[in-house]
Write a structure and sequence with these properties.
There is one protein chain. The chain has 4 domains: about 40-245, MFS general substrate transporter like domains (Growth Hormone, Chain: A); about 300-400 and about 600-700, MFS general substrate transporter like domains (Growth Hormone, Chain: A, Up-down Bundle); about 405-435 and about 450-495; about 505-595, Sandwich (Immunoglobulin-like), CATH 2.60.40. The protein is built from 19 helices and 24 strands. It is an alpha+beta fold. The chain starts with a helix and ends with a helix. It comes from Pogona vitticeps. Interacts (via extracellular domain region) with trypsin. This is Solute carrier family 15 member 2 isoform X1.
Length: about 725
C-alpha cells in the first residue's frame, strides 16, 4: 500500500509538469533512480541521514567521559561506569526498535518517531551542559535524562535504517544492494571519523562560560541529528515502505520457550526421546521454523564468549581517553586534544578493511593456510588483548611521573631555599635532608612524613652560615607542602604552604607566584585574569592555565608597568614562580617545577590503537559476515539482535569491574587482557567443534522451502476450487 501511494504521488507530480532533478531519472512504475544506474534516489537520503546520525552519536560520545570528569566532577570509576552503562543501553534498545518496526509501526515511522526522541535527548543534554542553567543536581538530572533519550533513539533506529535502505532495492538488483551496504558502512565510519576529530576541538579550543565549551560540543551533534531527521523526511515521497511483517524475534523466543516447557512437562512420561531439544516444539510450530531456530541457536551459542572483546574495545572512549589526559600531546606545535585520539579508530578501520581484504587475506590463502572466519575472530581477540597489554605498559610509564598520593597519617614536603646562601635543614625525629640545600636550587623529590595523628606540629632546625634558627609548623595528614625559607631583615624566616596534591587535569598547567619584593605585584595573565601577589614573600594560590608559552605578561608594581616572561607551562605540570628582582622594565624570576610535566608522549597510544583496530576488522567485520552466512534468510534479524546484545553485555562487564574492583589502572588493563586471552582459548575450543554450513546450501534450502510453500498454497487453492 505504501509503495502504491508513493507511485501515485509521483505520477501526480509528473502530471503537474514538475521536472526531475538533474542527474535523476524517473519511471512511472518505480521510484526515482540515479541516471544510468539501478540505484533508487531514495538511498541518497538514507546514506546522508546515517552520516549525520553517526556524526551526532560519536561526536557526543567522544567528549562524554571528560564531561563527567571535569564538568560534573565525578571520579574516574564513576565516569567510566556511567559511560559504559550508557553504551550498554544503546545496544539493548535495538530490540525495542526492532519490535516497534516489525510488529507495529513499520521501519519508516519507527525511524521518524525515535529520531524525534533522539533530537530531544540531544537538546536536553546540551542544555544540561550550560553552567549557568541550574545547579549541579539539575545538570546531572538533565544529563542522565538526555542520555537515556539518546540511547532510546540511537538504539531504536539502529536495526531499522540499514534494513530500510535494503528495502529500496528490487530483488533482481542484489549486487547494487550489496554495494549500497558498503557505502552505508563507509558513511558510518566517515561520520565517526570527522566527529571524533571535530567535537574535541569544539570542547577544548573554544572557550565559553569561562571554561571548556561542552554546551557547544554537544550542541553541534544535536544540530547534525536535526539535519539527519530533516533529510530523512525529505525523501519521504521516494521511499519504498514495506508494512510490518511480524516480529521474528518474538516467534523465535516463543518457539524456544514452548520447547523447554514442553520438555519439562513431559519429563516424567514415557515419551520417546527426540533428536534435538527444540524438537519438543513440533506440536505447535512448523518443522521449517524449528529447523531455522536450530541453526540460529548454534551460532548464538558461539556468541557467548564474544562480550569480552567489546568490554575491551569500548574502553577507547573511557579509560584510554583518561589515559590520554595524562600524556604530552604536542606534535611540533600542533596540540591534540586527549579525546581526539579516538579518531584513530575509524581512520584505521577505513585503511585496514581494503588492506586486509585485498592484501593480507589473499596472501594468507597463497600460503595455503586455512584462515577460517573463526580463526580470524580468534586472532582479533588476541590483538585486542595485546593492545591492552600495551596500554598497561604505557600506564606504568605514566605512573612513574605521577605525584605521590598521601594516605591517612602521611604527608609530603619539599624545601624551597630563597635565602642568599646554602642552608641545612633538620626535622626533629626525621632523618631527612642530610646534604645542604643551595639557594634557588630546584628541590628534589618530595619527602614522605609519617605523622602520629591527623595533624602534627613539627620542629624545624635551619642553619645558615653558622647561625641556627628554629621553627614550628603544623602539618596536616594527606597534604603536600613546601617549606619556604628566606631572609628578612638579616634573619632567617620560614613559612609552610600547601602545594597541589595531583596533576592538573586535561593536560592543563598550574602556576603560583611568590613575591620577594617590597611592593605588591599585579600580574595580568594571557586569559585576562588578574593575580595579585602580596609583597614580602606573599604566596598566591595556584592558577590553572592551558598549556603554552606565556611571555611578556603585563605586570604592575606600584605605579610602574613591567613585563614578566614565564616561558613554557607544559602539560600536567605545576610551577612555583619566584619574583626576585626588577631590571630593564622586566621582572626577574626563578621558576621551579612542583609537579613534573607529562613526559610520556601521546603518540605512544598509537600502537594500542593500531592493534585494537586491526582486531576489530578481524573480529567484528568477519564475525558479523560469518554469523549471517550461517543462518537462514528469515533469521538474519535474530542474529543481528544477538550480535548487538554481545556489545551491550561487554559494556556491562566494564561497568561491573569499575565499580566492584577498583584497581590501579595498569592492573585493570592487565586483568582485561588476561580475561580476553582466557576467552580466546574458550572460543577457539568452541570453534574447533563447530561445523560450518555452506551459505550456498542455505540459499538452496531456502529456495526449496519457498517452492514447497508455494506448491502447498497452489494445492490448497486447487482443492478449494474443486470443492
Amino acid at each position: 500500500m505504501a509503495e502504491k501511494e508513493s507511485n501515485a504521488r509521483g505520477k501526480k507530480e509528473l502530471l503537474k509538469g514538475d521536472n526531475p532533478a538533474p542527474g535523476v531519472c524517473t519511471s512511472k512504475k518505480k521510484s526515482s533512480k540515479i541516471c544510468g544506474t539501478n540505484y533508487p534516489l531514495s538511498i541518497a537520503f538514507i546514506v546522508v541521514n546515517e552520516f549525520c546520525e553517526r556524526f551526532s552519536y560519536y561526536g557526543m560520545k567522544a567528549v562524554l567521559t571528560l564531561y563527567f570528569l571535569y564538568f560534573l566532577h565525578w571520579d574516574e570509576n564513576t565516569s567510566t561506569s556511567v559511560y559504559h552503562a550508557f553504551s550498554s543501553l544503546c545496544y539493548f534498545t535495538p530490540i525495542l526498535g526492532a519490535f516497534m518496526a516489525d510488529s507495529w509501526l513499520g521501519k519508516y515511522k519507527t525511524i521518524i518517531y525515535l529520531s524525534i526522541v533522539y533530537v530531544i535527548g540531544h537538546v536536553v543534554k546540551s542544555v544540561g551542559a550550560i553552567p549557568s542553567f541550574g545547579n549541579h543536581i539539575v545538570h546531572v538530572v538533565l544529563s542522565m535524562t538526555g542520555l537515556t533519550l539518546i540511547a532510546l533513539g540511537t538504539g531504536g533506529i539502529k536495526p531499522c535504517v540499514a534494513a530500510f535502505g535494503g528495502d529500496q532495492f528490487e530483488e533482481e538488483h542484489a549486487q547494487e544492494r550489496s554495494q549500497f551496504f558498503s557505502v552505508f558502512y563507509l558513511s558510518i565510519n566517515a561520520g565517526s571519523l570527522i566527529s571524533t576529530f571535530i567535537t574535541p576541538v569544539l570542547r577544548g579550543d573554544v572557550e565559553c562560560f569561562g571554561g571548556d565549551c561542552y554546551a557547544l560540543a554537544f550542541g553541534v551533534p544535536a544540530a547534525l541529528m536535526v539535519i539527519a531527521l530533516v533529510v530523512f523526511i525529505a525523501g519521504n515521497g521516494m521511499y519504498k515502505k514495506t508494512p510490518p511483517q511480524g516480529n521474528i524475534l518474538l516467534e523465535v523466543w516463543k518457539c524456544i520457550w514452548f520447547a523447554l516447557t514442553n520438555r519439562i512437562k513431559n519429563r516424567a512420561q514415557h515419551i520417546p526421546k527426540r533428536e534435538h531439544w527444540l524438537d519438543w516444539a513440533s506440536e505447535k510450530y512448523s518443522h521449517q521454523l524449528i529447523t531455522d531456530v536450530k541453526m540460529v541457536t548454534r551460532v548464538l551459542f558461539l556468541f557467548i564468549p564474544l562480550p569480552m572483546f567489546w568490554a575491551l574495545f569500548d574502553q577507547q572512549g573511557s579509560r584510554w581517553t583518561v589515559q590520554a589526559t595524562k600524556m604530552n600531546a604536542d606534535f611540533a606545535g600542533f596540540v591534540l586534544q586527549p579525546d581526539q585520539m579516538q579518531f584513530l579508530n575509524p581512520l584505521l578501520i577505513l585503511v585496514f578493511i581494503p588492506v586486509f581484504d585485498f592484501g593480507l587475506y589473499p596472501f594468507v590463502n597463497l600460503c595455503k593456510l586455512n584462515f577460517t572466519p573463526i580463526k580470524k575472530m580468534a586472532t582479533g581477540m588476541i590483538l585486542a588483548a595485546i593492545a591492552f597489554a600495551a596500554a598497561a605498559i604505557v600506564e606504568l610509564k605514566i605512573e612513574e611521573n605521577a605525584m605521590p598520593t598521601p594516605v591517612p597519617k602521611e604527608s609530603y614536603i619539599q624545601v624551597l631555599n630563597l635565602a642568599d646562601s646554602s642552608i641545612e635543614v633538620a626535622i626533629q625525629d626525621y632523618g631527612l635532608y642530610r646534604e645542604p640545600i643551595k639557594a634557588f636550587q630546584d628541590p628534589e623529590e618530595y619527602s614522605k612524613l609519617i605523622l602520629s595523628s591527623d595533624q602534627q606540629q613539627l620542629h624545624f632546625n635551619i642553619q645558615s652560615q653558622g647561625s641556627l634558627s628554629m621553627f614550628n609548623h603544623t602539618v596536616q595528614e594527606m597534604t603536600v607542602n613546601s617549606l619556604i625559607v628566606y631572609k628578612t631583615e638579616g634573619s632567617l624566616a620560614s613559612q609552610l604552604v600547601k602545594d597541589m596534591e595531583q596533576k592538573p587535569t586535561e593536560g592543563m598547567s598550574a602556576v603560583r607566584f611568590i613575591n620577594t619584593l617590597g611592593q605588591n605585584v599585579n600580574i595580568t595573565l594571557g586569559n585576562g585574569e588578574f593575580i595579585n601577589v602580596n609583597r614580602s614573600y606573599g604566596v598566591s594560590s595556584y592558577t590553572i592555565l592551558t598549556r603554552g608559552r606565556y611571555n611578556d605578561l603585563k605586570c604592575t608594581l606600584g605605579a610602574e608597568e613591567l613585563f614578566l616572561s614565564l616561558g613554557l607551562l607544559d602539560f600536567g605540570a605545576s610551577y612555583t614562580v619566584v619574583i626576585t628582582n626588577t631590571s630593564a622594565q622586566a621582572l626577574q624570576t626563578w621558576k621551579t617545577e612542583d609537579i613534573p610535566a607529562n613526559n610520556v608522549h601521546i603518540s605512544w597510544q598509537i600502537p594500542q590503537y593500531l592493534l585494537i583496530s586491526a582486531g576489530e576488522v578481524m573480529f567484528s567485520v568477519t564475525g558479523l559476515a560469518f554469523s549471517y552466512s550461517q543462518s537462514p534468510v528469515s533469521m538474519k534479524s535474530v542474529l543481528q539482535a544477538g550480535w548487538l546484545l554481545t556489545v551491550a553485555i561487554g559494556n556491562a562487564i566494564v561497568l561491573v569491574v569499575a565499580q566492584a574492583a577498583p584497581l590501579q589502572q595498569w592492573v585493570e588493563f592487565v586483568l582485561f587482557a588476561v580475561l580476553l586471552f582466557v576467552v580466546f582459548v574458550i572460543f577457539s575450543i568452541m570453534g574447533y567443534f563447530y561445523t560450518s554450513v555452506d551459505p550456498e546450501d542455505l540459499i538452496a534450502n531456502e529456495k526449496k522451502r519457498k517452492m514447497s510453500s508455494n506448491k502447498d498454497m497452489i494445492d490448497l487453492v486447487t482443492k478449494k476450487t474443486e470443492l
